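Notes from the 1:1 (GR / supervisor)

We went over the backlog. Supervisor wanted to see one worked example end to end before approving the batch request, so GR pasted a single chain during the call. The sequence is below; no edits were made to it. Supervisor asked that the structure be written out right there so they could see what the output format looks like.
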Amino acid sequence: MARGAIAEQVAADLSASSWIRGMFEKGVELRAKFGAENVHDFSLGNPNANPPEAFFEALRGVTTERAPRMHRYMPNAGIPETRSAVAAFVANEYALDVDAGGVVMTTGAAGGLNVVMRTIFDPGDQVIVLAPYFPEYRFYIEHAGAEVVVVQTDEAFQPDPRAIEAAISDKTRAILVNSPNNPSGVVYSESHCRALAEIARRHDREERPLYLVLDDPYRRLVYDAPRPPTPAESYDRTILVSSYSKDLSVAGERCGYVVVSARVPQRRELLAGLTMLNRTLGFVNAPALIQRVIARCADACCDVDLYRKNRDRLCAMLRDVGYELVIPDGGMFVFPRTPIADDAAFVARLVEQRVLCVPGRGFGRAGHMRITFAVDPETIDRARDGFAAALRDAQ
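Structure output shown during the call:
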């Protein structure tokens, strides 16, 4: 049997990841045809807040330094002063016992998740993912040799403890938690975070550890509460993965981190594995320049109010023209119902109006669509007629 040019698994992944990529390519085509100002693109969650002044001050300071060795290879877990700064920030933000030794600097949160999964998963392990979920989770997990077990959240996109409990087997190695959530923007409530911790605790075994892996890059983009709840407060065997892509609005700099607090059992062994995989997977932690910048502004944040205003503007418009939605508590997305069950067909109708969104089925939840509010306010206003027309045509 003849083989294709690429691995079969990669070919399958290319097909499965086509929703977001397809919308991106459609946007390029439409902008070339109609002009950028006549295409309303809500498909990509690309942070559009300006980085805070503290970031630019740190950047100016670092780029004027001429110290020897500052741009050479570094320890595999990251630059010590950067790890110390991140540890101090995380200890305060999460009320956890974290020191520099528990921090591994990574190439974004995506790099961090891949490092974590290759460190803790064996072939045949199962990972519970709560839908709706970020589509690339499936690829990360399967590339690590594990199996995705999708568990739907409830109608408000909160975790369903009974469904999670029922999905756990003797192969379950981790529950992946993303709150604020991409694509729903929902923040998991304190009671649901405690429930996740209690479920994990009941099934954790010394000979068969069960991890909660928190993917937290949106944690500081919250709009209706000062600090979102976290299961890390209630469950020791928690691994935290995050980045500075959203709160500093520097996604292109690819600076993330993995944190293993002092409470995590077998911490030394876990950190050794994370550090080795960070090197051998080729990520070799975040670049030196951005690490040195982060060391000076690890607790800074962009203007979250920009996203809050955009959220309110977009949600008010969608509700006004007739869409049903859950108001997002954080993040940069809203995930309304589509007026017909076939979300892909409805998104195609929006494309006819030159409005670009992503079908919910790409996130494990059909009958919805993801819309980002990381856009200019004018884009939201200009898209109103298109959203309204597509809804009228569907009724």
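Supervisor's comment: The chain has two domains: 8-51+303-394, 53-297.
Batch request approved.
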